[in-house]
Write a structure and sequence with these properties.
Layout (H helix, E strand, L loop, with lengths): L6 E4 L3 E4 H6 L1 E4 L4 E5 L2 E7 L4 H10 L4 E6 L1 H9 L6 H11 L4 H17 L3 E4 L2 H13 L1
Antiparallel strand pairs: 1-2, 3-7, 4-5, 5-6
């Protein structure tokens, strides 16, 4: 049995509870571009411009875009990361399409969304309760 953390850390280090996370709405990075072919869905997103990246990109002529190939499930999730669908709605769609338990779909989706978020491919529109907490935290800093 997979145990879920009671809190999830999202943008800005804000901790949100499980119910708040399920109500969050993932949204694609507006700078991303994508195209689909027989191999799957290809994403192109600008790389994070860290100091090291800038140094090595001059020396190695590195590509300034990150390329990602998504499989069928990844493409389904990507299509639903439109800022309109909540995490729990996306998990429900996955469980229906791939005939899996909702808890398994939520666990897999949690991990996948965290990976996409850390890669800079998506962000989250948080529920009102989490946004208020985040704004209070910013004022205190």
């Amino acid at each position: 049995m997979i145990r879920h953390k009671s809190k999830r850390t999202v943008e800005g280090g804000l901790q949100v509870g499980r119910e708040e996370f399920l109500k969050a709405r993932p949204v694609r990075n507006p700078e991303s571009k994508w195209e689909e072919d027989e191999k799957g869905l290809h994403l192109r997103v600008p790389r994070k411009q860290t100091r090291w990246f800038k140094l090595f990109s001059k020396v190695l002529h590195s590509n300034k875009q990150q390329r990602v190939l998504l499989d069928e499930q990844g493409a389904l999730v990507w299509g639903l990361c439109d800022g309109e669908h909540q995490v729990k709605q996306i998990a429900k769609r996955l469980s229906e399409k791939y005939e899996m338990r909702i808890s398994d779909a939520q666990a897999a989706l949690d991990l996948y969304l965290v990976h996409l978020s850390k890669s800079g491919l998506i962000g989250f529109v948080l529920p009102e309760s989490a946004r208020k907490r985040y704004q209070r935290r910013l004022r205190l800093q």
